[in-house]
Amino acid sequence: MSSTGKLEPDEIRRRAAALGEWFHNLDLGGVRTAPDHFLGDYPAVKWRSFAHAVPADLAGKTVLDIGCNGGFYSMEMKKRGAARVLGVDWDDDYLAQARFAAEVTGLDIEFRKLSVYDVGSLGERFDVVLFLGVLYHLRHPLLALDLIHEHAARDLLVFQSMQRGAAEVEPVRENYDFWDAEQFDRPGYPKLHFVERRYANDETNWWVPNRACAEAMLRSAGFDILGRPEAEVYVCRRTEPLYGPGAVYPAKGPRA
User: Fold this and answer.
1) Would you say residue 142 lies in a domain?
2) Is residue 256 included in any domain, yes or no?
3) Distance of alpha carbon 146 from its chain centroid, rounded?
4) How would you classify residue 69: left for phi > 0, otherwise alpha for psi between -120 and 50, otherwise beta?
5) Is 148 within the bounds of a domain?
6) Does residue 124 lie within any of the structural domains?
7) What's the CATH number where 131 sits?
8) How far apart are CA 118 and CA 151, in angstroms?
9) What is the pLDDT along the chain (256 residues), one digit of tens a residue?
10) Structural domain tally of the chain?
11) DSSP-assigned letters across all residues of the chain
């Protein structure tokens, strides 16, 4: 440690390495935590494509980063002046990395071990909720969106999911007859692809939506899409869901 109390690069490098393999390539005092990432300078390269769509001034705002991983987005929110940033993840290794990154950068961020399914236990809503790169790792993705809507989001949701399948979105009718089936084969119909075993050598990949499905799920959970600044990223505003509180799974409409 230097005379100013800051960690020297060699010490940062040693401690970062001791925390295991990093998925977030962070710049910690000139030390890169994942310089050989298969996606390049990730997630900074992703962030640069949609950073302009997130409020630049978050003074007085609260932020919840669900699935915070190594803390990259939590730190970016704090740099924008957020009054409070809470990052949650279920992986102890990621949380240890995030806490170390916050220590090195001197940013006041709280990190907790919490599943997206448990956001109701926080007992509070946040002005901005980040839900980036999480949906496709969940066995129950729509439930997660419902719970975020009902318990965590006050205003904005910034959402990102890996997408596969068709990029086009076709209009969907209000209703289809029981004998109508051809719409399910059309590329632009909402589809959620199930991964029974692995995808990309990752056993935690469960469901991958096409674009139409990602957008339909957001609307169904009660999020109005304000913009799509990047192919997989949506900035949404919380509104009232069409079918009532989804997490309790009521009948879908008055005569379902």
Assistant:
1) yes
2) no
3) 14
4) left
5) yes
6) yes
7) 3.40.50.150
8) 9
9) 554 458 899 999 999 999 999 999 999 999 999 999 999 999 999 999 999 999 999 999 999 999 999 999 999 999 999 999 999 999 999 999 999 999 999 999 999 999 999 999 999 999 999 999 999 999 999 999 999 999 999 999 999 999 999 999 999 999 999 999 999 999 999 999 999 999 999 999 999 999 999 999 999 999 999 999 999 999 999 998 877 766 666 656 555 4
10) 1
11) --TTSPPPHHHHHHHHHHT---SS--EETTEES-TT-TTSSTTHHHHHHHGGGS-S--BT-EEEEET-TTSHHHHHHHHTTBSEEEEEES-HHHHHHHHHHHHHHT---EEEE--GGGGGGG---EEEEEEES-GGG-SSHHHHHHHIIIIIEEEEEEEE----S--------S---TT--GGGGSTTS--EEE-SS-BTTBTT--EEE-HHHHHHHHHHHTEEEEEEEETTEEEEEE---TTS-GGG---SSTT-
Query: Domain range for residue 204?
Result: 57-167+177-241
Tokens found for residue 113: 């071990």
Residue 254 identity (one-letter amino acid)? P
Retrieve residue 79's tokens. Answer: 């740099």
**pTM for this structure?**
0.92
